[in-house]
Structures are given as structure tokens and as C-alpha cells.
Amino acid sequence: MADVEQSVPGPDGASNGSDAVNGTAGRFVSSAEGTALAYGSLLLMALLPIFFGALRSVGCSKGKNASDMPETITSRDAARFPIIASCTLFGLYLFFKVFSQEYINLLLSMYFFVLGILALSHTMSPFMCRVFPANVPNKQYQLLFTQGAGDSREEILNYEFDTKDLICLCVSGVVGVWYVLKKHWVANNLFGLAFALNGVELLHLNNVSTGCILLGGLFVYDVFWVFGTNVMVTVAKSFEAPIKLVFPQDLLERGLGASNFAMLGLGDIVIPGIFIALLLRFDVSLKKNTRTYFYTSFLAYIFGLGLTIFVMHTFKHAQPALLYLVPVCVGFPMLVALVKGELTEMFSYEESSPEEASLKEDTTESDKDK
């Protein structure tokens, strides 16, 4: 998906995402403490959306809006995804080579401005439900957009929301304006964390086999595009959008105006994250009141990402994080399942899509009525 790398500040102070060894002569050299703080912060920021996104994925199918319903990834989707991702990545590479980078990033900024507001609002919603004053009326609203009239009228958009959702949208809108105007790394990270958490929560693998196909395919994808070509790094350098988490290595010296960034692509969070979330739901299905496979895969992710950062720092070269994350996130839980004699049960675990689950519930209720 994207690699872990160090970056160099550009003329305007923005990160160009280039490799550490390509620094200019006048580049500021970060202290060991600043570098350690940056790497540690990236690791912590990667863990938060995985942990909370996995917990929220257990019950997200009960959401009130269509936007809250999970998207189930099948084995066919998983097999096609690396090909689609490769075409998209190479297409972006060609776009940046042919067209002006400034105009492309302007369009991307507006696109991610809208998506970021919606993602951050959805992320904030559970917290707002807890802190919203009980004595303040929580009014209900409905946004309905239809086409045609009478019996031929077709519903295009039907979104229900309340006062709490409006407050979340307003706060998210402020962050969005801050990001568009300043491109500040804090605003970038707020949107990036929201995208990652929503991805882990709302993207569901239907079984472990599908997860292995997806992670295996993206393992090859990540290694090829990082080590085999300069496409991944070039796009990362040119792409100004909150699709990565960044943290300045010179924060201790320059404060919030720091500009020498280490970065981690959101794909390296979301892709292992949806597999870890699947294992949590498998733990729940066992009804043993344990979270063995979730904690095993979560600790494996920490080990894999730590290993990625260590190798990147040692060799001073951008690393495909999935090269290290995929083997440990898949291998460790399977080893535990093999030891516990639950490997067959793990691979036989199957999740239904929301439509299939709804159909099963309707069938069950119908049988009860009979």
C-alpha cells in the first residue's frame, strides 16, 4: 500500500516524502531523541485506529444509516484488489508526470476535504454521544434526495442524523478548513486517523482465507512497487492528501512548525487492521470470553511495524511495511490456532454480508411465526 519512510522538507516546508539519503546539504539533522519520538508516535498512531476500529467493527452492522453498514470483502474482491491498486498507483504516477502537480493536488485536496469531514465526523460520533448534555434537546433530521415524481420517484440519498451529528460535522469542518488552508501535519493526521479507523471498522473480510489472499497479494504489490520501481516513492512525494500519517523528527527543536517528517502510509494500517478485526470477531464467535487471536495479532503488528522502522532506520531507505507486517500478522495467530487445535475452526469461520445476515434474520423470524 504505502511504505514507511523518512522525508525531507520542500521549499514551502511541506514534506516531499523522499528518502533520507536524498537530503540536501542544508538539511536540518534531527536529534536521536527527536527521531525516536517521531517513530514512537507513528507506532502509537498506527495502533489506535486498529484497536478501536476492531472493537467498533464487532457491532457496526447495527448502525442506523447505510453509511454505518460494513462492506464485506470476498475472495474475488481480495484477488482483484492488488491489480486494481497497481493500476491506480501507476495511473497517478502518469498523471503527476504529464499534468501539473499543483492542479492535481488542488482537486485532491477538495475531494479529501469532503471525505475527511465525513470520516472524522463518523469517528467522533460515539464520543459525542457520551459527552452530549442530557438537558439539551437532540433533534432528529433527515436529508432526502429523490429523482422523479409519483410512483416513479426514485430515492437517491436518504440520510438520517441528529443534533449530535451536526456538532460533529461542524468540528470536522473546522479541521477540514485548517487542512485545506495550511496543510498542517496535525490536521493531516486527524483526517488520516479517521480514514484508518473507518476503514478498519467498515471493511470486513468474510473469512480468514480471504484475508490471506488479500494480504498475500498486497505483500507482493508493496514489495514490487517499492523495491522494483520508483513509482511508489514518486507518488508519495507528489501526493498531497491525508493518505499517510506523518510526524516531525525535529519537533523538539522547531515545535509545531517542524517540517522534517517520518511517515507511514494508511494502507499499512488498514490492511493488517481489517485482518486483526476479523480475528477479534472470530474470538467473539467462539464465546469463550477470551480475545486470544486478537491480542496475538495485535502484538504481532507491533512487532512487525517496529521491525520495519528498525530496518528503515538502519539502511536509510524507504521500506514496504507489508513485507514485515504480513508474515507476522498472519503467521502468529495461525501458529497459536495450530497449538490450540483450532486451525480448522478458524478457517471455517464465515461472516455473512449485511444483506445475507438480514435475510437470515427474516427467515428465522418467519420460521418462529409458523
TrEMBL record:
Superkingdom classification of source: Eukaryota
Keyword Chaperone set for record: no
Transmembrane segments: 36-58, 78-96, 102-120, 187-205, 212-236, 256-280, 292-315, 321-339
Subcellular location: Endoplasmic reticulum membrane; Membrane
Region: Disordered, residue numbers: 350-370
GO biological process, one term: membrane protein proteolysis
UniProt name for this protein: Minor histocompatibility antigen H13
Naturally occurring in which organism (per UniProt): Phoxinus phoxinus (Eurasian minnow)
